[in-house]
Each structure stands twice: as C-alpha cells, then as structure tokens.
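Entry 0007
Protein: Carbamoyl-phosphate synthase L chain ATP-binding protein
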Amino acid sequence: MFTKILIANRGEIACRVIRTARRLGIATVAVHSEADTNARHVRLADEAVCIGAAAARESYLRGDRILAAARATGAQAIHPGYGFLSENEDFAEACAAAGVVFIGPPARAIRAMGSKSAAKALMAEAGVPLTPGYHGDRQEPEFLAERAAEIGYPVLIKASAGGGGKGMRRVDQPEDFAAALASCQREALNAFGEPHVLVEKYVLRPRHIEIQVFGDTLGGCVHLFERDCSVQRRHQKVLEEAPAPGMTPERRAAMGRAAVDAARAVGYVGAGTVEFIVQPDGAFYFMEMNTRLQVEHPVTEMITGLDLVEWQLRVAAGEPLPLPQEALAIDGHAIEARIYAEDADKGFLPSTGRLLHLAPPSEGPHVRVDTGVEQGDEITPHYDPMIAKLIVHDRDRPRALARLRAALAQYRIAGVTSNVEFLQRLVATPAFAQADLDTALIEREQALLFPAPQPVPDEVWALAALAELQREAAEAAAGDAASPWSQADGWRLNLAPERRLALRCGEQTLSVGAQPDAAGGWWLSIGATRLQASGRLGPDGTLAARLGERRVQAAVVLSAERRQVFLDGRTWPVVRVARLQAGGRGDDHGGGLKAPMPGKVIALLVAPGTVVEPGAPVLVMEAMKMEHTLTAPSRGRVSAFRFAVGDQVGDGAELADFVAEPAAAA
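Output (structure tokens):
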C-alpha cells in the first residue's frame, strides 16, 4: 500500500479522499490554486503545494505542475478525484512515464471511453444496447441537421467529450437545430477543448440509471449495483438514489452484465460508471462510461457498507478486488441531495460570496455530509458552486426519504443563495415521493417547484425584529450605560416608549412597532397584529423565542443590513431599511442589463439598435463552466453593448444600454 498520495483536485472530493487516506494511515498532499490557499482541503492535508492562478487552466488542469508537486513531495500516487484531469488520458500516461501511479484506469481505457462516438462504436462490438443516433465524425451543420431529421424529433445533441450536462441540448423542432448546435459546440469547446458532438434520438420520459463497476489489474471485474440519477436540471444531477426504485432482480442482473461487459471490453481498472438511458418499458441503452469515481458514489457506499476510495487505493496498489460479485449485497436505501450555491428561482443561476453562516444537519449512522467548505469560506466564480452532498440511509425508501426531508429542514446557509428550499419542495412532490421518476421530473412539476410568492408570515417579521432588538440591546450594554445616546429603549416625551423598525423581505416592506413589556420582552405591532415576544439570540444565530402562545426554535443570522431568518425549514432574507435612506430599494437594475455574476461574454445575439420583446435572448455569458443566456426584461431597444465577445466582466457590470419602449400597438 502507498505511504503518501497527492490529490489532484479540490473541494468536497479532495476532502473525501483525505478522510479515507487518513484512516488507512496514508499521508496526503493537497495541491491548490492561489484562490484556494485557505481552502478546507488544504487545511486538512498533511502537505500542500500551490500550483498556479485561480483559473483552472492555470492550476488544476496543469498536469506538469501537479507531477512536479508529486515528485517534490515524494508522493507515490496521484488521486485525480472527479472533473479536471480525472479523465485525461495524456495525464494518465504522463504519470506512468514519471513513475507515479495514477489512481484510475489505464490511459487506453480513458481514451476508448473519452469520446462518446468512439465508445458507442466499441460498445456495439461488445453487444451492449445503443440509443439510435449518429455517432460519426462528420460535423457540418447541414449534415447533422439531415441526420437529426432522419432520426426524428425530438433529438439530443451531446458533446462527444466530457460530461456534466455541458454541451448538451434537447431540440424539439428543425428550426431550432442550428442555434442549439452552435451553442453546444461553443460550450463543448470551452469546457473540453473539443467541439465534436453526436446526435441521438431523445427518449421520451427516460430514466437515467447507472451501474457502478470496479476492475483490478488481475482481470477481476464486478458491479456494485445501480444508482438512479433521473432527477436532473440542465442535464446535471440533483438527486441520486440507490437502489433504483422499481428495479427487478432480472433487470438488475442484465444491466450489471452489460456494464461489466463494457468494462471488460476496454480492460478497465479501478472505479467506473456505465450510464444507461432506460425507457418506461424497461429497455435500456448505453449512454456513456465515466472513467472515474462519480460525485454520487456515497449512495453506493451506504447500501453496500463499502469505502470505494479504499477500493481505488487497493486496486491501484496492485491488490485484487476486496470482494467477489457473489459477496456483494444491497442493504437498505440511500438518497443523495447536492447542496449548491445557486438560485433555483433564477434558472439555477450560481451564487457567489462568503458563507457567513453554515450549519448542516447533525451526522450519524443515517445522515452523512460530504463537503469541501466550512463557515467563513468563499464560493468563488472560478469553480463548481457545490457546497456539500447530503446523504441519508435507512432500511427502505420511505424511511430514507423521511430522513432526507428532516435533514434538509435542518440545513442553514447564509451569505449565498442556496438550493436547499428548492430541494425541500422537490422531495415533497408526489412524483418523487411515489418514485414516478424521469429526467423531465423538474420540468413536469414546475407549478409545485416554483410556486407564486406568498406573503411573509407574521412570525418571520417578529423574529427579525426581535433579533434586531436583541442586537441593539447587546450593543447598548457594551457601550456607555450612563449615556442617553447608547439607549435603544424607544423613549418618547409624554408617550409610552416605542421603537419602529422598517424591514423589507422581497417585494414586501413593513414597519414593525416595538414597545417593551414589564417582563423584559416586547409587544410587537405587525400590521393589524399585536403580539408579545421574547427570546434570546445566541452567538451562532439560534433564537429560542416565544411569539404569543407559540414557542419556536429559529435562527436569525445578522450580516450588515440583512437578517436571514430560518424557521420551520424555510429561510427569508429580511433587510433592515435605514429610516433616513432615500431613493429606491437599492437593488434596481436601472435601464441596463447587468451581469448576474463574474464571467465572460461569449455571444451577442442581437445587433445594436434592435427592438426586442420581453424574454428575448440578448447575449450569452460563460461562468462556472456553463453558458447563461441573458434576456430582455421588457420590450425595449438594445442601444449598444458595452463589452465585446471574449471580454471578462465583473458581477453587476452593465452589459448593454437598454431603453424600455411601449408595447407595440395591437
């Protein structure tokens, strides 16, 4: 076994590998970019080496610098994690040439499966079922459009290299094909350096089921059952579970055999995943093979009781597979939810910023949290915005689902927008609860997942006001108690003392009246409601409060003018409005189009001077490895663009001069 390994990755997966290595007594070396100097994986590792600037192409994608770090620190092997260089055959070959073990498959296997087109040809030879489509080398737009027409709409355009939903578009009608193809090719070229795509029949209401495989250097190969990854947004997985609901023993055996055949066809070694598209009738087709450890591997670990990273290390060290196929069994059910810094209500737009408050649910035998960040860390625009993976396990799916709901309700995140509430709504939908799964579940459940805004509950206003009053009282106690200017008791000449707090949450603004009561609490006036409130605000934001006759356990995180209120599994961003503040709400966009995050302009979709309708695409930005199309907020004229294609822009930058115009006469 190795005595020291280098981890050529960052974030959650780097921390995950460190955990297993430490348990096995293996020293670890972290590599990091300048942006990750104080990252959690750097803090956890035994040693750390800076390998370049923030951009991945200057750090985590620099195989030469990573190998130099391995040689300098005496690391015997390199674990690539997932993403970055994990499926780069050139890097695997470079490791072998340098005498450093690559903890993954041989370069020939990565190369064979790295191109979706080449992989499908290989799978056809091995007798693995394939989705109907065009997987060849010709890439002329007119030729591909002809193939799409022959296949029959809807079709799916997919980047031949890479994965993660990048360079992938569903096309429902011929007139949309050219634009979708161009977008796929741009995104594929940017993410993988290769614009080659394939075109396949889009299977209606498909499920995405993958099989975990493992091979060793002695010819052994097994599968560790399946995972259902059907619940996706923008072709990226959101929820994963194992085993797949409704899977019969016969189909599991057939898919397992096909996956092992696929792995054996390329002489596979290490952890890999064979992904299938499954029709409603149970027919399955090979989609691709991921030649690395998957993000969702923890659900397989939970139902098998195995540590797949340990398996990777043992196989890479030349040991045989720890267990044969007949010794592997499924125990219970596991579900994983990906916790992202993103705004689901704004098209899952990534959110950046500092994690001012991060309180995950308590871990135990049934709840696991894999994360690469801690409170105070920053989510930057340079990398994937994942905060954590929340994994739950119990003896069956209903019990596991109940644990997931409870754990999500306990999650508290402030400083960035997260998808926690979206996940709560998602796992509560009847479709997910009843395992009516397919890759369009999120689109089908729009009404439940994106409900119309509701009035802010009185309890939320009360908690925000109570926390603010507690904060002011603490500040007054720490100041000059003899000075009248340090008092915040609402004293008024010839009137009962009263404070007025102006608060805003979303589109709602409210003035809350507060009068001290004899017991040390407050009488709060919230619109027509008057209630007695008291409580104690802890240093971690916890607020044990009494609101009228109700006692609640909540949390209020204070940051500048914002008070993030957590109650009953939900969160409300409440802003304290200064009484003397003039002007607008402070978040108006004026007459322009602003960058929602730092990124690069990659396409201007209209000419200056064009009049566009509401929702019309205006320009495309690339940020966090994905394309984001900005649309017109109303009918108006795009007078001019302030940036050219290729320009880097900052968060909130005015991208275009946009002048609103009245609606056209009927």
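Curator remark: The chain has five domains: 4-103, 132-201, 207-449, 458-576, 592-660. Confidence is low (pLDDT under 50) at residues 491-495, 579-591.
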